[in-house]
Structure formats: structure tokens, C-alpha cells
């Protein structure tokens, strides 16, 4: 399990990784249970975020492997650049609430667009406390999506 004493070495490793890419982002680290949250602020983050966050996901995967090897610890890395993920998650939650409100009003189910597992999880979690709707994932692979139904 990661601990606070490891944060300076991890921060140094992240700084070196991005220095090799010609950048020097501001890095803020936080440990919550088995997750290392790394928030970066940098100029022109587009190339590191990529289309729909694909580059960010790939960099996160690579950095997790590097940091696990360096620390010898198993943990989840949550990398965010210029609050991209936070803003994306806020958007998904708002979209889920709006769709659920529509379903609750019309009593007609609503099928959301296909989305990755992490985004589906956000929708399920956001709507799990509501008594007026239920969520269900359907489909396979990249076509997996959520249906929101009125609770009876």
C-alpha cells in the first residue's frame, strides 16, 4: 500500500517523465485508500489528453506501470490533466440526471449512447440512490450502453 513517505519520490518520477516530453507541469499528489490521484496543470494539454481522453488513458496506463515497478506497490493511478477528467465526470453525471428526470416524467425508458466501463459506472453510481429509476447495462464490447427505466 502506498504511503505519504513515497510521494516525493513518485512526484520526482512524474516530473522526470514529463521533463523528457519537454514539459514541466505543476503536480499535486494525493493518496486515498489504494488510489494515487495525480492532478497536473500544464500549458497546451491537448496532445496529452487526446481525442475523448484516449491519450490521457494511455499515459495513465504507462505511468501506472512505471510507478508500480519503481515502488513495488500495487495501486490504481487516477491521472487528470487540467481537470479534464473531473469536468468530463461532472458532464456525465449531469447527463445521467437529466436522462433520469426525463424517464421519471415520461415513464418511458431511455437508452444512452455506448460508453466505456468507467463512464457507465459513473452513471450507475450517480443514479443508484434514486428510487424513481433503475439502470441496466446492455450490449457487448464497444457497443455496451445503459438503459434507464422507470422504477415500478
Automatic annotation (TrEMBL):
Domain (KH type-2) ranges: 10-85
Alphabetized, the UniProt keywords read: RNA-binding
Matching entries from CDD domains are given as:
KH-II_Jag, R3H_jag
Q: Where is the R3H domain?
A: 86-152
MF terms per GO, please?
A: RNA binding
Q: Which Pfam families match?
A: R3H
Q: Extract the SUPFAM superfamilies matched here.
A: R3H domain
**Which InterPro entries does the entry mention?**
Jag_KH, KH_dom-like_a/b, KH_dom_type_2, KhpB, R3H_dom, R3H_dom_sf, R3H_KhpB
Domain of life of the organism encoding this protein:
Bacteria
Name of the protein in question: R3H domain-containing protein
Which organism does this sequence originate in? Answer: Candidatus Wildermuthbacteria bacterium RIFCSPHIGHO2_02_FULL_47_17
